[in-house]
Design brief:
heterodimer; A: about 160 residues; mainly alpha; 7 helices; about 80% helix; about 0% strand; rod-shaped; B: about 170 residues; Rna Polymerase Sigma Factor, Chain: A; Arc Repressor Mutant, subunit A
């Protein structure tokens, strides 16, 4: 086997993860190749060095910082919960629409035109209601003496709780 | 409870990855903050320790890509790292210390993914299937990366030794 191929097998060889044939090939190669044999010894040394790094202790300062995290998060979460309560959603939607309308009105350069338009629409609506009321009165007058009979007939319709008698 | 059980592990993982004590403290705090924000996503059928290691791994690699720690050097190699070991002679102690220093500094030359698998496998001693789960990689890819990482570090060590021998 060539040295490049053997290099790839050195680490699994160290961990005894090769099959019998590969293991034998590496073993034979290491006996005859000085470079690969030296590299293998450095791989072993590398692994020993890495394995020998002991765990560091956590400082008191870091522990204090870590213990303080849940408290901070809880306060933050509570404020969010309050804002996103389902019961507040219609109110938030209404406030949003109101803010949009007020912003549109107050920031619009043609505010005078909007005022005039609103005033005209209000006036038209008022006169329409007045006309409708006048027509209703005329209708009631036209019914005259038949008004009471019609009312009794309407009350007797089963739909409104009366009987057919 | 989470802090008591896992702070040491996360801090050490951050320290081994960055090589900076100060940076590791800040990152550990960030990772715990992220953990608390992700607890609702935890699948109770999964191993918690592995899940936390995945969060830490993702955070460390993401932060590395954003801040490019490879430009900074690692903290000076601390002799504390040798205290627990027994040596046959003072000469052996000096050689081992020099080798560890070279490997410690060499960790920064590895790509993030390879450095992480080396830390998980050789420093923390995790099994290959655990690493595959943490890294979300196929077992073969993990083994291949461990192999490449060890080879790269071994070659750095070899060059260092050859350079010293020539002096």
């Amino acid at each position: 086997m060539r040295c490049e191929l053997i290099e790839e097998l050195l680490s699994p060889y160290l961990e005894d993860e090769l099959d019998q044939e590969e293991k034998r090939a590496v073993k034979e190669h290491l006996k005859t190749c000085k470079n690969c044999s030296l590299l293998f010894s450095y791989i072993k040394e590398t692994r020993e060095s890495l394995t020998g790094f002991p765990e560091m202790e956590v400082s008191e300062n870091l522990l204090d910082r870590l213990y303080s995290i849940p408290g901070k998060k809880k306060r933050f979460k509570l404020s969010l919960d309050f804002l996103f309560q389902p019961s507040l959603q219609p109110l938030l939607a209404a406030v949003t629409i109101l803010v949009m309308v007020v912003s549109f009105y107050s920031l619009n350069p043609d505010r005078n035109r909007i005022n005039k338009s609103i005033s005209r629409q209000a006036h038209l609506s008022y006169s329409k209601v007045g006309k409708l009321y006048a027509r209703a009165e005329t209708f009631v007058d036209a019914l005259g003496e038949h008004k009471d009979n019609i009312l009794v007939s309407v009350k007797n319709i089963p739909l409104f709780g009366g009987n057919e008698d | 409870m989470l802090v008591n059980t896992y702070s040491k592990r996360i801090f050490n993982m951050s320290y081994q990855f960055t090589g900076s004590y100060q940076e590791a403290e800040d990152l550990t705090q960030d990772i715990f903050f992220k953990l608390y924000n992700s607890l609702h996503k935890y699948d109770f059928e999964k191993n918690f320790s592995g899940w936390l290691s995945t969060i830490a791994k993702n955070y460390l690699i993401d932060r590395y890509r954003k801040t490019k720690w490879e430009k900074t050097t690692r903290d000076d190699f601390d002799e504390y790292n040798l205290i627990s070991e027994q040596f046959e002679s003072p000469e052996e102690r000096v050689v081992k210390k020099e080798n560890k220093k070279t490997i410690w500094e060499g960790l920064n030359t590895l790509s993030t993914e390879i450095r992480m698998v080396i830390i998980l496998r050789d420093i923390q001693g995790k099994k290959y299937d655990e690493i595959a789960e943490i890294m979300d990689l196929p077992l073969g890819t993990v083994k291949s990366r461990v192999n490449r990482g060890r080879l790269q570090l071994a070659k750095i060590l070899k060059e260092e030794m050859e350079m010293k021998n020539e002096m």
